[in-house]
């Protein structure tokens, strides 16, 4: 959004929202003293000014000017204010629509003009004041949640999942797999926080570690400060990885980076090797235990969503695996499962994906799970099953864009095959 027109449009939208939201602020502060009202109004417009300044600094400065961490918080602050006010004005619109309907009825039926606009109880507050308070409360709650979410980005959770398959070879019963995804090392700003997650993985004593893509945000050098940490991950049967959509460097302007996009991908592949991870590029490996074998397939990013790349070639990875009784597929984008895996490869028993992050925002309580990302992805977090095929979508180890998590915590999945 570096074009002047785009910047002007966004700032105009912010000012329009703020002006509309301010009408509710005036409504709820009306009963208070002049000094109190002035203080609240001043703080309100000061926040608006800081929001616009943060937006301009984010757009017109390079990452090196403030550093990636400061820029991430600038972006998060702008979006938190914007979304909070967007939520708030939905309540104000309800009130305005109510009043508009009442006005229309009053014009058509003159007696309706005598209808009270306040509550039935003369001691209560008017509907307008009530809805204004409700809108401000909703917006403030969202803003507070997003700010609190900054503290959750390294608050890793272990998800224990037992999966049963009739055709699992006996020697692999009890196999412990740690599944992680979406590290996004370019977003990290706390090596100690990341180290805590690595320790939690190692404490699970997995037989096998599988990483399903998005090691970086854009550039291979983002991994430089974290190579030593990630190289600590090891398991008796190995550590395997695939590429995600961010690993191809599609979201930056490469002439400004002093390296070509193609060379960056070569460097990133080397990073996987440097830290001891076996990167699977549209291929498979055979895992053997107790004289029995299963196939592990790994493909490049393949998405059913048009805006993401389709580099993956499952037919190539699948070739030569038909004779193995059990197959695990690593595919970054969960939309691949519905679009191709279930349709054409019904003997792939378990697919592991990531990509969605659970949008880093949502609600998860026993028996209920919700996130805005579910309106884009049918499978977006946790376990999905159909016949003898299962998909597990990891909520992501890292974060990108918004430097935090609300309700959807960073995940380390411990899968046990039983």
Structural write-up:
- By secondary structure, the protein is of the alpha/beta class.
- It folds into two domains: 4-150, no CATH class; 154-417, Metallo-dependent phosphatases (Purple Acid Phosphatase, chain A, domain 2).
- The chain is built from ten helices and 14 strands.
- It has a six-stranded mixed β-sheet with strand order 1-14-2-3-4-5, covered by helices on one side. Strands 6-7-8-9-13-12 form a six-stranded mixed β-sheet.
- Strand 3 (208-211), helix 7 and strand 4 form a beta-alpha-beta unit.
- Helix 1 (4-29) crosses helix 4 (68-108) and helix 1 crosses helix 5.
- The longest helix has 41 residues, at 68-108.
- It is elongated.
- Mean pLDDT is 91; it is low at 117-123.
In short:
Helix content is 40%, strand content 16%. It is α/β, with parallel strands linked by helices and 418 residues long.
Q: Outline, from the CA principal axes?
A: elongated
Could you describe the largest sheet, including whether it forms a barrel?
6 strands, mixed
Q: How many strands?
A: 14
Beta-strand residue percentage: 15-25%
| Spatial strand sequence of the major β-sheet | 1-14-2-3-4-5
Instruction: Tell me which CATH architecture of the largest domain applies here.
Output: 4-Layer Sandwich
Give, in order, the helices and strands: HHHHHEEHEHEHEEEHEHEEEEEE
Q: Which whole number gives the mean pLDDT?
A: 91
Number of helices: 10
Terminal Cα span? 51 Å
**Overall domain count:** 2
Supply Rg. 26 Å
Query: Which structural class do you get from the secondary structure elements?
Result: alpha/beta
State the low-pLDDT regions, or none: 117-123
CATH class of the largest domain: Alpha Beta
* The CATH fourth-level homologous superfamily of the largest domain: Metallo-dependent phosphatases
What is the helix fraction of residues, given as a range? 25-40%
Named CATH topology of the largest domain? Purple Acid Phosphatase, chain A, domain 2
């Amino acid at each position: 959004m570096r074009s002047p027109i785009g910047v002007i449009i966004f700032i105009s939208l912010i000012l329009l929202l703020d002006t509309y939201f301010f009408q509710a602020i005036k409504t709820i502060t009306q009963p208070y003293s002049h000094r109190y009202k002035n203080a609240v109004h001043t703080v309100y417009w000061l926040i608006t000014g800081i929001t616009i300044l943060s937006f301009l600094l984010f757009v017109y400065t390079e990452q090196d000017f403030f550093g990636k961490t400061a820029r991430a918080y600038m972006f998060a602050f702008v979006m938190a204010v914007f979304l909070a006010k967007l939520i708030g004005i939905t309540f104000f619109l309800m009130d305005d629509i109510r009043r508009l309907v009442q006005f229309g009825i009053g014009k058509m039926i003159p007696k309706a003009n005598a209808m009270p606009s306040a509550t039935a109880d003369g001691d209560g507050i008017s509907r307008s004041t009530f809805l204004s308070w409700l809108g401000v409360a909703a917006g403030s709650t969202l803003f507070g949640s997003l700010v609190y979410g900054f503290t959750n980005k390294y608050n890793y959770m272990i998800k224990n999942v037992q999966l049963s398959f009739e055709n699992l070879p006996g020697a692999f019963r009890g196999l412990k797999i740690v599944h992680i995804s979406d590290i996004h090392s370019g977003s990290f700003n706390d090596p100690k926080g990341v180290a805590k997650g690595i320790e939690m993985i190692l404490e699970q004593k997995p037989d096998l570690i599988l990483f399903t893509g998005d090691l970086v945000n854009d550039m291979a050098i983002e991994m430089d400060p974290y190579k030593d940490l990630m190289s600590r991950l090891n398991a008796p049967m190995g550590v395997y990885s695939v590429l995600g959509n961010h690993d191809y460097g599609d979201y930056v302007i490469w002439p400004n980076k002093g390296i070509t996009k193609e060379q960056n991908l070569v460097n990133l592949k080397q990073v996987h090797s440097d830290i001891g991870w076996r990167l699977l590029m549209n291929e498979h490996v055979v895992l053997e235990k107790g004289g029995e074998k299963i196939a592990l397939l790994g493909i490049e990013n393949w998405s059913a969503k048009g805006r993401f790349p389709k580099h993956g070639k499952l037919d190539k990875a699948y070739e030569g695996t038909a004779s193995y009784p059990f197959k695990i597929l690593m595919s970054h984008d969960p939309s691949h499962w519905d679009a191709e895996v279930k349709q054409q490869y019904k003997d792939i028993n378990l697919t592991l994906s990531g990509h969605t992050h659970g949008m880093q925002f949502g609600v998860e309580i026993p028996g209920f799970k919700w996130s805005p990302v579910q309106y884009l992805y049918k499978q977006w977090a946790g376990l999905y099953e159909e016949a003898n095929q299962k998909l597990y979508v990891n909520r992501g180890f890292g974060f990108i864009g918004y430097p935090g998590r609300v309700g959807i915590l960073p995940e380390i999945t411990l899968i046990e095959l039983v």
